[in-house]
Write a structure and sequence with these properties.
By secondary structure, the protein is an alpha/beta fold. It is built from 9 helices and 15 strands. Bound molecules: threonylcarbamoyladenylate and magnesium ion. Threonylcarbamoyladenylate (TXA) binds next to strand 6, strand 7 and strand 11.
């Protein structure tokens, strides 16, 4: 596994690898991504294979600025422009009508494409240097925890990539918010780094609702996901010796004190679960975070991590 500091020369090398159809692990502000040229179907297939990801789950395409939206989206509503102005670069992904030049492999055959501008200097530098839109799912094996540090990238994935660029710890720590802009009423498909309230404040009218899971055309809504190896249970309060995540002072080894603030909690979550996993616990208990809506993304990930 080749972890590199992202010097200008290394960024050039990474961009070259991407243009050649290879994969590179990149830092973003949310999680590390397994990146490739979004317009190269063969490269995209390698990404699906490396992750063991079902081919019906489309990838997010990363661009360097709003102007580049033209290279992947056929059209977008005015509201997309307002959202981009407020949240890009940042953890908001918009689903828009796709351009024909984006291969079916990238979008899993959908006529839409998910796009965002990541808020990380290394990711932006590689996208600009490569001069192509970059598809990047989280750099984890399908259903497992997403990496939020270079050293957390699964070695199997890292070995298939040309290199892992080290960009330090991810500031947000869980994935972007995905919003479907093609519905009559834009709706959040996946809660994430931008809260529903923040989106709502820009949209200014009620967001749409998701259909029940059985009717969803939106892929990637698997019950078990983002999961540690250990069995994870959400509890009201951790009992004395139980390993897991608590809001109180830890009383035993294997208990990790988590922040009270939802953004700080999110930034810590995946790595904390990984630490417990790596110290060999086969059960992890997580104290239920507050029900306030700003915790929506954290609740979503805990629910998926605890599903059987
Ligand atoms: O923060 C993030 O979004 C990270 C970093 C690397 O940018 N990426 C990420 O990618 O989380 P991934 O592949 O793990 O999740 C992509 C999500 C999936 O839930 C997928 O179903 C959804 O985006 N998605 C992608 N394209 C879509 C489309 N055309 N329509 C609906 N959902 C889409
Ligand atoms: Mg993922």
């Amino acid at each position: 596994m080749r972890i590199e500091q992202a010097t200008p020369d290394v960024v050039k090398e990474a961009a070259k690898a991407i243009k050649k159809g290879e994969m590179v692990v990149l830092p973003t502000e949310t999680v590390y991504g397994l990146a490739c040229n979004a317009l190269d179907a063969a490269a995209v297939n390698k990404v699906f294979e490396a992750k063991g990801r079902p081919s019906e789950n489309p990838l997010i395409v990363h661009i360097a600025d709003f102007q580049s939206l033209r290279s992947v989206a056929a059209s977008w509503p005015d509201l997309a422009e307002s959202l981009a102005e407020r949240f890009w670069p940042g953890p908001l992904t918009m689903v828009l009508k796709k351009k024909a030049s984006v291969p079916d492999e990238t979008t899993a055959g959908l006529d839409t494409v998910a796009v965002r501008v990541p808020d990380h200097p290394v990711a932006l530098a590689v996208i600009r240097e490569a001069g192509v839109p970059i598809a990047a799912p989280s750099a984890n094996v399908f259903t497992r925890l997403s990496p939020t540090r270079a050293e957390d990238v699964d070695p199997k994935i890292a070995d298939m990539a040309a290199m892992v660029l080290d960009g330090g710890r991810c500031r947000v720590g869980l994935e972007s918010t995905v919003i479907d802009m093609t519905a009559e009423h834009p709706r959040i498909l996946r809660p994430g780094g931008v809260t529903r309230a923040q989106v709502q404040a820009v949209v200014g009218r009620p967001l749409g609702h998701l259909p029940p899971p059985s009717l969803r055309k939106s892929p990637g809504t698997y019950a078990r996901h983002y999961a540690p190896h250990a069995v994870l249970t959400v509890v009201d309060k951790i009992e004395n010796g139980q390993p897991g995540l608590t809001f109180k002072e830890p009383k035993a080894e294997g208990q990790i004190k988590m922040p009270d603030d939802p953004a700080a909690y999110a930034a810590r979550l995946y790595h904390a679960l990984r630490e417990l996993d790596e110290s060999g616990h086969d059960r992890i208990f997580v104290e239920r975070p507050p029900s306030h809506p700003d915790w929506e993304a954290v609740h979503d990930r805990l629910k998926k991590a605890s599903a059987n």
